[in-house]
Write a structure and sequence with these properties.
heterodimer, A: about 450 residues, alpha+beta, Beta-lactamase, 2 domains, 8-stranded antiparallel beta sheet, 3-stranded mixed beta sheet, 13 helices, about 20% strand, globular, disordered N terminus, B: about 280 residues, alpha/beta, D-Maltodextrin-Binding Protein, domain 2, 8-stranded mixed beta sheet, 11 helices
Amino acid sequence: MKKVYHLLAGLSLAYSGLALAVEPIKPESVGLSSMRLGRLSQVIDQHIEQKKIAGAVTLVARKGKIAYLRPSGLADIDKPMQADTIFRIVSMTKPLTSTAIMLLYEQGKLLPSDPVAKYIPEFQNQKVLEMNPKGSEFPYKLVPVKRDVTIHDLLTHTSGLLYLASTGWFPNDKREQVVSFYREAGITDGFCRPDETIGEMVKRLAKLPLYAQPGEEWEYGLSADVLGYLVEVVSGMKFDQFVQTQIFDPLKMQDSHFYIPESKISRLSADWSSDWHGSLERVTGPLIDGDLALCPNDAYATSGKYLSGGASVLSTAYDYYRFAQMLLNKGELDGVRLLSRKTVELMTATNHIGEHDATLLHSHGWKFGLGFAIQEDRSHNVDSGDVGVFEWAGYYSTRFSVNPKEQTITIFLSQTSPFGAHFGLWDKVTAVSTSAIAD
Amino acid sequence: MTLTYKILSLCSLALLLFSANSFATGPRVAPSLFVTDKNIMYAQEYSPFVGNTHEQQGLLMELISSVLKAEGIAGTVNILPTQSMVQYYFSQEMPLAIIGPDFKLSKAANRKAIFIPVLGLDTFFYAYQKGETKVLDWTGKLKNLKGKTYGTNKGEDISAYKQAGINIKYARTPALVKQLQQGKIDFIGMPEATFNYLNKQHSPEQAALFIKITPKAGKILMGITFNKNHSEGQQAAKAFKTGLKKLISSGQYQSISHKHIGGDIATDEFIKRMQ
């Protein structure tokens, strides 16, 4: 009988893995209301019942302790979501890339104010595309940059680099013209994994016209991909190797990868396509919509050349919590100091982009730090949190939010596209988790 | 106020104004401030003929650089990843020359162009072998390929293909090879040297499955196009023609070609014509 008990206990441990290893504490012990956190379960379950999403893992932590960690719905057909399910976090890769850059900054190897051309010569003598007045003999002209693109511009998305997919979000003639050069040069957004190195892509990108003068517009784009290559140039290491040894290993992020190990493929969530009105299907091939090209199945590749600083990482809610907690702790986690307090303060300062607003994920009232959006004021249409909250999201419906004032972290990981309909759900998740604060 | 005191005060002011800190936050001296655009040339990246690094400059670039150097034609070459950008610079700005394939320039741009061919290579169609079936019924007539899909880069004149009822798909050359393998397109066309280069770079293990179709599909001319409107354009073109003849007659042209693409991909016919 004792043997059977041990066998069952072992099997149960192996099956649920992380769920047992990370046991959430009683929410009340960190000033959160269990009853109110229960509303989070209701909101997510309702979305699953309505077939808006297939499943999710949601995590809420406060004062350095996980108070809510709940897998719900399906990770794949006939496969329930687990706490340790692995997700394509896509643009939530960007804060990791910014952290890699800031590690090099702390080692005295680069400065945010450095021109990128100092390390990647192809960024010298860049041009900016300007449209000529309607009816002109030629539709556009290329004018010299007023100043070089800096590392700070890349960290804050003020470099003038675009995403191809932005033609669908904010269509205009100038954007279309710049993106036509991107297309011709074989530039991709990094949501698929092309058969080339990131350096090859970045060197071509640097030769193409910018959409705006450096520092003059906030434009979400391929900046973090350039930063990933910059890490390679400055550190002399492949980007994935640098992130593994300098971030994942010290923070014990054991399930975070650029390419998934064979042994963990079964833990990777499927991607689902939802029309937000009850039609939910497992995605089997690439999703192409105009200039937006998504290849969720590329995440099953166990090796490859392409290492996107803007989109390549696969991770779990618990691993990303460890990264977010390090930032919330101003650079330290479990006795390991990754960044200095001053560096995290620099990354989370609200005044990096001056008069511009980071209006892609949010609306006015949000600025952009060195890798994520930061709530700057409450005079706009802001739903929750506090001034100083920093957060970012990923294309397949993933989002993290850190509130330094209340010491809370909220992570929501799903795998559903397109992401347009998800803004409301994400905002509700952060609003409900914020409302659970009960001290 | 004594003279010494005045000098010391000025020095202190200068130190204050130009201290390390003021440089740290002030405008930086960028390399772009020292680059002259006067004799700029633009080239289209097209491996293995125009590479994007000094170490791998490519066959065409090495031939052209050798002539430019021998004839004392000074200039900076800026290698660009798209044909459209090269065309833009030639038509809208005042470069000394552009380098690459025989660009399809607008009528207005053509009026100021002096094209000097430097390299002429046969092009071939390539298909991907799937089973035992004949991959492409090519006998030299495009109409035999009606209904097939041809993959090409933007900029190629595809009117004859369209007339023959062939579907067209555009992509960058490395992506075309991948699409050929995936069955998304039926055939592509390029010089053998380009195809061998791409195969080596991207899918060496699949090389045997790509089939070179004979007879040849056509010919591609690559070279340098001088700008008549540039103050040194006509003179430079004349000097370049002389220099190219010298390069061929000295045997240097042949040895550079051999180094890059070997003796099996003949440029002999082109050299004879040039001579």
